[in-house]
Write a structure and sequence with these properties.
Number of helices: 27
Distance between the termini: 81 Å
Structural class: alpha+beta
EC number: 2.7.7.101
CATH superfamily of the largest domain: DNA primase, catalytic core, N-terminal domain
Protein name: DNA primase
Catalytic activity: ssDNA + n NTP = ssDNA/pppN(pN)n-1 hybrid + (n-1) diphosphate
Keywords: DNA replication, DNA-binding, DNA-directed RNA polymerase, Magnesium, Metal-binding, Nucleotidyltransferase, Primosome, Transcription, Transferase, Zinc, Zinc-finger
Helix content: 40-55%
Function: RNA polymerase that catalyzes the synthesis of short RNA molecules used as primers for DNA polymerase during DNA replication.
Radius of gyration: 32 Å
CATH topology of the largest domain: DNA primase DNAg catalytic core, N-terminal domain
Number of strands: 16
Largest sheet: 5 strands, antiparallel
CATH architecture of the largest domain: Alpha-Beta Complex
Number of domains: 4
Shape: elongated
Length: about 600
């Protein structure tokens, strides 16, 4: 009886393989996976390894998934094993319709057909006509061992040899076409062979079954690389070239662990070159940018795969796309790391020119996802104008908002904006970019000169307290607020404000939880605070609160306030709207009061 593949996959995911094997032998943790003495042959030292979706014994060669383990160990049929595991998983075994049974039978036949096609291509590879393909692989430095490991072969001349071979085995033209081996004609008929005069790269699924092919043409002709079309077996968005090798990388215990890193590269030859150099965890997408489905496949092998991109502009675009694609499905346990190769290098050429030790250093110095996103975002800037900095802030905020896990989103926002303020508003900062066609002048931001006396300290307390009780003005004053050189106790409160800017209740709750609320209460009860602040201000006149904030900011450093007025005026003139007008007027009124020497910010309303 044939069963729906989707149901079988869900069953394998629901039933932890190690828990089923633990019913028969003692299992123990080994890194992210498990190991045990093999239940199929007697041994004293464990060589039986249990991964997320399969087991493998490196002593006797036993291999399979949770269903095959029950079959082999308990002597049960496929159906019996299936019903037993479904009961454990709380799943109901679906009853298949005749159409589903026919579809499953067709899929089974296609696996056999693809295996037969691969054998035909392997036979062609031995023929004199394939010498050009063998010579090409030799020039590229591909060893005979790697050719055998990856099943590399030759398509032949495409004049019907494959069709005759498969028809001789009983397959119809329709089935050969459904497997993706023939050209599809406009009238829904099948044409000649899709692949001819190409070095062939078979594409395997996780169970080591051929599901598609990629072909590299030699000499003139387009496209240079051609992949199988979508078929019942092959969906390129959900497959990675080299995926079948990932199951064994964690068994290599006698080498530097970095060699077992799961690496994502851009092409077939990169995967093979890295494998030859000892990096057996390399995979590549198949003519598409890395998709979320492919990331989930990677995370089944490791929580932190490393994406390796070429050092050209296309590599940078691919890196940015992959980073952004990961954000909605990112978790605190599953992320991405990145390495970038020198310009005009790919993994294949880098290994040949620099050697495997140099590649190990690249992996050792990999960058995490937040650093990569920040650096790429900064590279998109064309200058350091207020408009470009505002665009960067919007982009960083968008990055954090795309992460669905709340705590992780909050941490990303904090890390990204910490770097933003450190780069653009720290003392003696120099802005640099990797763009060779842009040169930026050194930009020095003069922070407010804060005298260490009681009056200035009280003014700083007032600025912080206003934002605790009226965080809605933060967008207008944030830049200036973050540039203030505050003492540690106030700087700690600033961090809470920045983390909880969307809700004043969160700010107060967090301060209380951290034992910081006593400072706010003390400030509120001071006579200075009551001169300019009342509870009604928050609800009735937010603009008045903003003006008062700028007034006390100006009392700390009038030159800084002048600069803020100029900046607000330019923004209003460049793009007039009501909000920019209010911001400009609030700063201007505050400046006028400071110039008149007025300490009390309650004197007039805007």
């Amino acid at each position: 009886m044939a069963f729906d593949q989707q149901f079988l996959e869900e069953l394998r995911q629901r039933v932890p393989l190690h828990s089923i094997i633990a019913r028969k032998v003692k299992v123990a943790r080994s890194g992210r996976h498990w190991k045990a003495c093999c239940p199929f042959h007697g041994e004293k030292t464990p060589s039986f390894y249990i991964y997320d979706d399969h087991f493998h014994c490196y002593g006797c060669g036993a291999h399979g998934d949770v269903i095959s383990f029950v079959m082999q160990n308990e002597g049960k049929s496929f159906s019996e094993a299936l019903y037993e595991l479904a009961a454990l998983a709380g799943l109901e075994v679906p009853q298949q319709s005749p159409q589903q049974k026919e579809r499953q039978e067709q899929q089974h036949n296609l696996y056999e057909l693809m295996a037969a096609a691969h054998q035909y291509y392997l036979d062609q590879f031995k023929s004199p006509r394939a010498k050009v393909g063998r010579d090409y692989l030799m020039r590229r430095g591909i060893s005979e061992h790697s050719i055998n490991q990856f099943g590399l072969c030759w398509s032949g001349d495409g004049r019907g040899g494959l069709i005759d071979y498969l028809k001789g085995m009983g397959y119809s033209i329709h089935h050969i076409g459904e497997a993706g081996l023939l050209r599809k004609q406009s009238d829904d008929q099948w044409g000649g062979e899709l692949f001819f005069n190409r070095v062939m790269f078979p594409i395997f699924d996780r169970r080591n079954r051929v599901i598609a092919f990629g072909g590299r043409i030699l000499g003139d002709g387009q496209p240079k690389y051609l992949n199988s079309p979508e078929t019942p077996l092959f969906a390129k968005r959900r497959v990675l070239y080299g995926l079948n090798n990932l199951g064994s990388i964690h068994s290599r215990k006698d080498i530097d662990p970095l060699y077992n890193t799961v690496l994502v590269v851009e092409g077939y030859m990169d995967v093979i070159a890295l494998y030859q150099a000892g990096f057996h965890g390399a995979v590549a997408p198949l003519g598409t940018a890395l998709t979320q489905d492919q990331m989930r496949l990677l995370w089944r092998a490791t929580p932190k795969p490393v994406l390796c991109f070429d050092g050209d502009s296309a590599g940078h675009r691919a890196m940015l796309h992959a980073a952004e694609e990961a954000l909605p499905i990112l978790t605190s346990q599953q992320t991405l790391n990145f390495i970038t190769l020198p310009e005009k290098e790919d993994p294949d050429s880098f290994i040949q020119n620099q050697g495997e030790k140099a590649f190990l250093e690249l992996i050792r110095n990999k960058r995490n996802l937040s650093d990569t996103l920040y650096e790429i975002s900064v590279e998109l800037m064309v200058d350091t104008s207020p408009e470009q900095r505002a665009a960067l802030r919007d982009r960083l905020s968008s990055i954090a908002n795309q992460i669905k896990e709340p705590n992780l989103s909050k941490e990303y926002r904090k890390v990204l904006f910490d770097r933003f303020y450190a780069q653009f508003y720290s003392k003696d900062r120099r802005f640099r970019t990797s763009r060779k066609d842009k040169t930026f002048e050194t930009l020095r931001i003069i922070r407010p000169v804060i005298q260490e006396n009681r009056a200035d300290y009280e003014r700083m307390c007032i600025l912080v307290a206003l934002l605790v009780y009226c965080p809605s003005i933060l967008p207008s004053v944030e830049e200036a607020f973050c540039r203030l050189g505050l003492p540690k106790n106030l700087a700690d409160i600033r961090e809470v404000i920045m983390e909880n800017a969307e809700s004043c209740e969160n700010i107060k709750t967090t301060l209380q939880a951290r034992g910081m609320d006593s400072f706010i209460e003390k400030t509120l009860n001071s006579s200075n605070f009551s001169l300019y602040y009342s509870d009604s201000d928050i609800n009735t006149n937010e603009q008045s609160i903003e003006r008062k904030w700028w007034h006390f900011y100006g009392l700390l450093n009038i030159q800084e306030l002048k600069d803020q007025v100029d900046q607000a005026q330019k923004a209003w003139v460049a793009s007039p709207d009501e909000q920019r007008q209010r911001t400009f007027i609030a700063r201007l009124k505050a400046l006028e009061m400071v110039k008149r020497g007025e300490e009390n910010a309650q004197d007039e309303e805007v």
